Amino acid sequence: MKKTPFILPILLLVSCLIESCSNGETYADQKDKELKAITSFLDRDIVVRDINGEVVCNVGKINEISEEQFYEQDCKTDTSKNEYVLFGNSGVYMQIRRMGTGEKLEWGQTARVICRFIEFNILGDSIQLRNDVNVWHPKPDIMKISNNYGSFTANFDTEINGGGAMYLQYGSTSVPSGWLIPFSYIRIGRQEKEDEGIAQVRLIVPHSEGQASASANVYPCFYELTFQKMRD
């Protein structure tokens, strides 16, 4: 009989926990929603528009290829077929639109790279952030990247201009790990001739490889990015 007073509080606690779980999404639920959003994004004929309805980029319906096919194609994606390679370990999809000028970043090398981008929140179905517009031209995002013998590490450099859009929006110098995947395949240089083009890629980045907000709130992003080496 002395134990009876403790039963009611325990039952109330269990009831509250059950109600809390039923009202909120679990991490597994969020990941499942993210996966469904990515799957839907691949199969839709996506046109990314700004708040004024102007077309920013035409993503189209995506043709997924395997890593094996990607390597057989000399590490290229056929843009005429709108191919994106899926990297199974990370869940990142990549399309190389331009290989870029100059050279690849070799083992042991470090470089500063100017990044311009469009960030589209796939779950929100809208542009979330972009620095390819005039207001950001004086303050581009500058990435300091190193090739540590095949493993790339990077941070956003805030010393030169106080930080670009990514740092000011998300408050972190950490570069999304999904952004580093293209550097095994692209060249980073500067445009010297009219018929040259700096490296351009498109990525679908799940939350686990994304920026701080995406990681915390479990949502995937689509990016269109260009990379250009800074002058020494």
How does this structure look, described?
It is a single chain. With 232 residues, the protein is of the alpha+beta class. The chain has one domain (26-229): Chitinase A, domain 3, CATH 3.10.50. It is 25% helix and 31% strand. It has 6 helices and 11 strands. It has helices spanning 4-23, 27-43, 67-72, 165-170, 177-180, 212-217; strands at 46-49, 55-60, 63-65, 83-87, 92-98, 110-121, 126-130, 141-148, 151-156, 199-205, 221-229. The strands form 2 sheets. Strands 3, 4, 5, 6, 7, 8, 9, 10 and 11 form a 9-stranded mixed β-sheet that branches. A two-stranded antiparallel sheet has the order 1-2. Helix 3 (67-72) links the parallel strand 3 (63-65) and strand 4 (83-87). The longest helix is centred in the first third of the chain and has 20 residues, at 4-23. It is globular. The N and C termini lie far apart (81 Å). Mean pLDDT is 90; it is low at 1-22.
